[in-house]
Please model this.
Amino acid sequence: MGTAIFFYACKSHSSIVEELSVVKSNQYDIPTPCKVTYDGPDQRTGKPKKEIAYENIFNFTHEKLANYYKDRDYLKCYSSIGIVDGEYYLYLKLIFDSKNAGKSYGMMPKEENMRIQLLNGNDVLLKPFKNATPRIDTKTKKIIYDGIFKLDGGQKKDLKANEIDKIGIMWTSGFETYDIYNIDLIKNQLACIDRN
Model:
């Protein structure tokens, strides 16, 4: 279970990465190490695009909710890496097992940094490519956020060389920090997409 800290928070390329690959929520739990899910032209722009399968990077249940979420997690987060026209992107899909999560968290604003704390003590700061707003899965009633983060050369190098300790996300409701258990996932995903 992670720890949380809250305080008051503060069509060119956009069309290329606006849509993430559509995968049903329950398919994220199927282990798919280093699987390329798409390799071809972007449907809107025709630019080359490649994406790898989402994998679970962390789960989180706030301690105040632990008695209610005994057999499941309040939040599951999955990561993927994509390359669009030579540019690297980190995709995070956050799935809340609560239909009220959108009201509680608000959105992930593009003006605010997400902080990735590496095990070597350094931080990688990433801004969302666009506002990540809540949407509901009509079948499961879960709330889903799709975060898209563009990686520059230095950020990609740091993430490819190091394991991750924590991820801190600034929501409009405040800042929350999540402990990472799959610490080498993004590192391995970057290596995977470069191999393929």
